[in-house]
Amino acid sequence: MRKIPTNLRKSPPGKSSPGKAELPLDLAGPHVTQGAASQNRLYQALCHAIVGGIVKPGEPLPPSRALAKQTGFRRNAVTTAYERLIADGFAVATTGSGTFVAARIPAQAGAPRKTRIMIEPPQHSALSLGCTHIDARALQRFRAFAGRRLRAFGPEHLHYGDPRGSSELRAAIADHLLSARGLRCDPDQIMLASGTLHALRIVLGAILKPGDQVWCEDPGYPAARRAIEHCGYRPVSVPVDASGMRVAKGRASAPTARAAYVTPSHQFPLGVQMSMPRRLELLDWAKDAGAFVFEDDYDSEFRYDGAPLLSLAGIDHLRRVIYMGTFAKTLFPGLRIGYCALPEQLVGPVTAARAALDRFPATLMEGAVADMLNSGAFAANLRKSRKLYRDARDVLASTLAAASEGELTVPVPSQGLHLVARLAPSTDPLVAAEAKAAAGVGGWLLAETYHRAAPLSGFVLGFSGHPVLQLVASAEQLAKAALAALRARRKTSKGAHAPPRPMRIGTA
Ligand SMILES: Cc1ncc(COP(=O)(O)O)c(C=O)c1O
User: Fold this and answer.
1) What are the sequence ranges of the domains in the chain?
2) Pocket of ligand 1 contains residue 349 by CB under 6 Å
């Protein structure tokens, strides 16, 4: 540590200062950015001395000439540092008498204080949802496209842009929706956002008033429900059966809701597909109520058996349905690019709401994603990952069923990147919670996706983006832990004859 003794003699007019014999300035501590300009280092060292009480409020700072001499810095650097101290409220200048530490110094320290708030980043442990695998060749092409786009950085990146995002990417998405989902829409009806939840919030903000009701599937996607609640709307739990959301129940409990959020192609988490009669029933309700339906089509690109189904928005011709898609699964979550296709009458209000919220999306990666779609690299990556995920799904389902000695029922999903493994319906959901904790794996408890409906005991497990050997090992661990938890429970209940306890577990 380099300490510079500094003599302090002068006091402000009319004030007698105790006067320090010297002002030790620490120019080598962590509060000083080494390599920064000399005036900045001096400023940081002086701030540190003031905030640390080494020189007290009202006490004089050394004359600039003296400090320059003692520190070896140019006098210019000292006066610039003093000017900044004065501008930031740490010091005051008195004509003819010099510079003094301010009577009240600003609360903040020169260097940022380490926050004590701990935010846990999401875990990517075995069987976690939300992991994807991007093929090495696809990643290489993405890097090349992104590099080329950065090198061709032009006026469209330097100015404010269209609140809906790049027209080039919107056109590429419109082509993709037509070929992959049979959804015909004009690129002008598409808005880019940083993921599904972002798109959901923007559109809700444009069409709903605080307190409006929104139907949500129960069980359902907890993150969407949270987003709806967070924005001040009222989620209404509508139960789900083998045909999807039970529209009649929704009509009975909240007929005048303003919107519904559904995952019709692959219900999250149960994986059921909404039947055609239910789809038509839902669209009829939306028409009668003047409501809108949010179709979250989060994993349709990963269909393993049979042709992809027509989207709800395709059946409705984008009249009352807002279609939402994401590149978080087809490419990778860190990209933060999702999109929605809007009914024509919503384009104006949603664009205005977007402009008022965050103006427009970041443009730099949009071109590279458009290149992925237009070049065929996106489709090639999908073909490869679909095969990989199908194999991962089969391995996970068969290992869970075998290692649990049949205690876990594991329907093999025909779509998507997760599966549900259920214990017998009468099992206390706490058994699953105990097993998951004992196995130390990721994924969710099935109960975490329920809100009002009685939760089933089981797990929601991701199979994408995990190495096969890890999938097998963690599936075995979880199945064995489930067996052990079941046996322990049977042993205690044999003695006590306790009925299974109903429980609610907070959503993740
Ligand atoms: C049901 C559902 N919708 C959407 C998403 C994607 O959300 P985002 O695009 O905000 O990353 C996920 C991700 O796991 C999901 O499970």
Assistant:
1) 3-101, 154-363, 382-496
2) no
DSSP line for 231-271: TT-EEEEEEEETTEE-HHHHHHH-TT-SEEEE--SS-TTT-
Q: Is the CB of 197 under 6 A from ligand 1?
A: yes
Domain 3-101 - what CATH class? mainly alpha
Q: Determine the CATH number of domain 154-363.
A: 3.40.640.10
Q: At what angle do helices 377-403 and 366-375 cross, to 10 degrees?
A: 90
CATH of domain 382-496: 3.90.1150.10
Taking the C-alpha atoms of residue 382 and residue 423, their distance in angstroms, rounded to an integer, is: 33
| Ligand 1 probe mutation, 274, 296, 448, most atoms within 8 A of CB | 296
For residue 181, the number of C-alpha atoms closer than 13 Å in the C-beta half-sphere is: 30
Beta-ladder partners of 421:
459
Residue 159 makes CB contacts below 8 A (sequence gap 6+) with none
Could you tell me the pTM of the whole model? 0.81
Residues 227-262: pLDDT tens digits?
999 999 999 999 999 999 999 999 999 999 999 999
> From the CB of 38, is ligand 1 less than 6 Å away?
no
CB contact set of 330 (below 8 Å; sequence gap of 6+):
132, 301, 378, 381, 382
Assess whether the C-beta atom of 196 lies below 6 angstroms from ligand 1: yes
Confidence of residue 476 (pLDDT cuts 50, 70, 90): very high
Backbone angles phi, psi at 445, to 5 degrees: -80, 140
Pocket test of ligand 1: the residue of 127, 131, 132, 196 to mutate, having most ligand atoms within 8 Å of its CB, is 196
CA of 187: how far to CAs of 165, 172, 258, 347, in Å? 10, 8, 26, 11
Does residue 298's CB lie within 6 angstroms of at least one atom of ligand 1?
Answer: yes
How far apart (Å, rounded) are the C-alpha atoms in residues 52 and 423? 60
505 vs 443, residue with greater confidence: 443
